[in-house]
Amino acid sequence: MALYTDDAVIEWNGREVARGAEQVRAFHERFYDPAIRNVQLDKTLIAASGDWIAVEWTASWDNPDGTKARQIAGEHWKMRGDRLCEWRAFVSTKRVG
Predict the structure, then answer these.
(1) Where do the H-state alpha helices sit in the chain?
(2) What phi-psi label fits residue 60: left (phi over 0), alpha (psi between -120 and 50 degrees) or beta?
């Protein structure tokens, strides 16, 4: 949470899903299910200009039901000083296998 400003906003596929520290924390906690295994995440910096950073990522993991999931995404971060105040992610997730 040290990365975010207290008034940070998260948008996921064009929809606001969190605003403020409490909602940002709750959003992230949903991704830390201990039953999910073999998580792989690779991020690549695409561009940085002024307060904006553009990143792409790929992720994969094993679900508790034995299926595998794969995700590709692009994201934009708006920084305020050294902290993130806006995170906009455009994500495609699918189950495989």
Answers:
(1) 21-29
(2) beta
Tokens read off for 30? 């949903």
CA distance 10 to 89: 8
Please give the Cα distance from 84 to 39 (Å, whole number). Answer: 24
pLDDT digits (tens, 9 = 90+) for 8-29: 999 999 999 999 999 999 999 8
What is the rounded distance in angstroms from the CA atom of residue 92 to the CA atom of residue 97? 16
Tokens for 6?
Answer: 């207290």
Q: Of 35, 78, 42, nearest to 58 (Cα)?
A: 42
Q: Report if pTM > 0.90.
A: no
Look up residue 84 and give its two tokens.
């993130």
